[in-house]
Amino acid sequence: MPTTPTTPSMDPMEPTDPAQSTRQSSGGARSPRFRVRGTGRLLWAALRALLVLTLVCGVLYPLAVTGVAQGLTHQANGSPVRVEGKEAGSELIGQSWNTRQGKGGSRPDPKWFQGRPSASDYDPRATGSSQLGASDPRLVKAVRTARERVAAFNHVPVERVPKDAVTGSSSALDPHISPAYAALQVDRVAEANGLSAEAVRALVDRCTEGRTAGFLGQPHVNVLRLNLAVREAARHG
Amino acid sequence: MSQTFADVLQIVALVGALALVHRPLGDYMARVYTSDKHLRIERWIHRCVGTDPSAAMRWPVYLRAVLAFSAAGVLFLYAMQRLQDKLPMSLGFAPIDPDQAFNTAASFVSNTNWQSYAGESAMGHLTQMAGLAVQNFVSAAVGMAVAVALVRGFARSRTGELGNFWTDLVRGVVRILLPLAAVAAVLLVAAGAVQNFSGMHEVHTLSGSVQHLPGGPVASQEAIKELGTNGGGFYNANCSHPFENPNGFSNLLEIFLILLIPLSLPRTFGRMVGSLRQGYAIVAAMGVIWLAGVVAVTVSEYAHPGTAAQLAGGAMEGKEQRFGEGGSSLFAVTTTMTSTGAVNSFHDSFTAFGGGVTLLGMVLGEIAPGGVGSGLYGMLVMAVIAVFVCGLMVGRTPEYLGKKIGPREIKLAACYILITPALVLGGTGLAMALPDGKEAMTNIGAHGFTEVLYAYASGSNNNGSAFAGFGADTPFFNTTIGLCMLLGRFLPMVFVLALAGSLARQAPVPVTAGTLRTEKPLFTGVLVGVIAIVTGLTFFPALALGPLAEGMSS
Predict the structure, then answer these.
(1) A228 touches chain B (CB under 8 A)
(2) Are residues A214 and A111 in the same domain?
(3) Calpha distance B384→B392 (Å, rounded)
(4) pLDDT under 70 in chain B at which residues?
(5) Complex ipTM tops 0.85
(6) Which of A60, B163, B284, B293 has its CA at a distance of 20 to 30 angstroms from the CA of residue B470?
């Protein structure tokens, strides 16, 4: 317990006599229960303060915010995307676009636009990234493999593969790709779905979002919305 | 619009918004902390607590209240995590292990929010909102209370009284943090952050697989986690999780919220000491260091040195497409130069220099602009040191704001600045000497060492961000980093409050022709220089072994 180099009469630690405690308060007569003495009582007061503030900040505040937020039903509940009335994901959460688990394991499905590499294969129960440094040999290897894989999958030279196609996102749930990566996939997706490249390119343009408010962040393409549009076009086309 | 122009515009918009808002908010906070009136809800809270809200406290009493309240917080949060499975809304999660529960309790009470757990797979909704998020409010209010007590030390004379801790605490929560957080939470929901009480639910995706989507009272926690410079994510991916930070607007809003109170408090300080220009000198020093950091990291990330980043064509590993390098760098510097530690991109995968600057931001003591309250008192302690250095140069007894900086004051300030280097370097040294350090690294070589150094720097400075490849969930790291967080938070408060008490007792010295003008740009320059030399040089050898060695070799 720290002490001050003051005279004993100035010692503030334990106001024991009434005269002293009166001088301690800034004015007026106080009810005796207002005085906090001794470590035990102080801790008890601290715990009560915590409990009251828990009620205010930990119960009333989140309930009030939830009450207001549920007015914005769509956002507050995770921006769900519905297909034929059934929830098929969230427009904010990226998904895996692999083929169903088959004999040869699951691999990227050519009929869908593919998202960025994900450390958890887009499982929201385990978010996070590779955590590898910019010169780490394992990351070098992962980037090299991804470049070759993306180039071969889309039948383009490796030089055309953009950076977001070969680097894992931070959340492992990135719902977006760059317009460059979307453009790279147009021919492959068009062929696999029996659509014309122009039609698919028009869909990409429609699903490309600029920077928020014109200057915040980067232009991006929502992969789920784009694939929904492709699916729709392939059905009617 | 080119990406560079957009990134510059983003910084200009942020600075403009802060410049606009810091005046009314700073003045409002000064009124909050000097008013004699108690709101009805405050009187009700004080009656529940059983304290007299008008009783003035001398510094040891104030300190005792701070420590008692924080001790109660650690015990309560520890118990809550250990009993999680018995509480409602646990989502079926098991109790947290003792070492991790201690670490998390210490972390949230000390305003650090270092997380050795992953939110979505460990914590129930009640633990998050009534345990962790409550500390987001109150630990921030404690920081502000201590800062205000120090400002009162400068503003008052011939008294030992620094105000009443319970009043400062309750006012900080009720009048400042709650209203701002409520508004921010609703804005975040409008942008797309989730706010509900559901758990994981299954959806069947177009490609025929099953995805489990989480829910939770996220936006309400997100708002206070930024506003209170806490930083503990609801989910493991923190602010890079699209449900916490859905788009470019929410990203800028979160950065704004982080900087809002730390950059407004110097105005409060100026008001309370009766000279707004003294506040400007402090905020200018904060702004200069912050801006230098933003430029350094942004340039380094766009230049993307490093074998893997060069091969990929950009340093986008661990960054989100909707933010890009610019939005990620701005967030990274802001979060490490305040005591926030929330991340919208993973610093472990930043370029060597970019990651090094985020580490430097923390070891500078988090004063540019620093955490809510802790940034201001940290900067004022540095100002005391700067005044002392200037006094030595001209051979005069140093004075700051009409108070003599004598042997007692300078000893207290010196003790303050010695604490974090001792904890950071001591902790890192211990971890590296034992097998634990090497076992925790994900990366190899210099980068692996940086992971360990970053962990202790983050804990001791109450930041909470991580080079997250670091395997923090072991009894050794949970215990040592937990202790670093508590000591790094509360020992400095001891010295700050002692300093406040000692300043408040003094009679003011009249201003003469020889008085150092601490409201002038020259003093701001000296202050920045002293910060760079005193704290920067202390950590230079350690930084040379970590990020500098990595950057030079790649």
Answers:
(1) yes
(2) yes
(3) 12
(4) none
(5) yes
(6) B293
